[in-house]
Amino acid sequence: MPMVEQFIQCDEQLDIIFQGEPLTAPLQEIINRVKHFYREASQDEADANEIIDIYRKLIHGLERLKNADVANRHTIAEALKRELLAIADEREAQLGRDKIKIIFEISCLLIAAVLIYLSLFTLIAPSFAVHPVLGLLLLTVLTRLYIAELIDHIRDIDYLTPERIYEIMQEEANECSLVNFFLPEHTQEQSEPIEAHGLALQEDGESVSFRL
Q1: Does pTM top 0.85 for this prediction?
Q2: Where in the sequence is the domain holding 29, given as residue range(s)?
Q3: Are 168 and 181 in contact (CB under 8 A)?
Q4: CA separation for the pair 167, 170 (Å, rounded)
Q5: 3-class DSSP state for residue 201?
Q6: Over the stretch 156-201, which tens digit does the pLDDT of each residue have?
Q7: In Å, what is the CA distance from 212 to each residue of 83, 90, 177, 196?
């Protein structure tokens, strides 16, 4: 089954879980945020299968919680929350590993560029003597290729910003809100979209501050 259809199926299953439940506008917003998070997280095809598996685990956990006896729901909910926390921690750890990898690649690229420039200089230098325009053209082309490669690596760091960490923590908070919905003492306030602990983000996404 194509990946897009799998996500559509998961979205439908999530809707079915809350079908017939007293959905408030804030709770529906949380459900929509969860759907959006998994769609965005699956943009990298290499991680899509892992993302869909995590999404299915969340859905199966909510199904089990909803269908459980009231007396057993707290135990199931706590186990599910621990699993959600572990997933969030792993996502943050992966961001750290990716950041180290990208920084290492950029460092290697800078070193390689210096060495290549030094080695190519001896090859291009005669071109300046014979045909200055050709030599300048070669140098310009090589410089542009290097800059383009460097920019591609720098762009990879975009998702390693504090905003990305906030998104992970916010997703954990949203999923925990869905878990809390099926607890006996659930109240409407527990379905309000909440800010992830330890981070504050303006709605326009332009300002992020740590409160740890």
Answers
A1: no
A2: 3-210
A3: no
A4: 5
A5: strand
A6: 655 556 677 778 888 888 999 999 998 877 644 445 554 544 444 3
A7: 23, 19, 22, 12
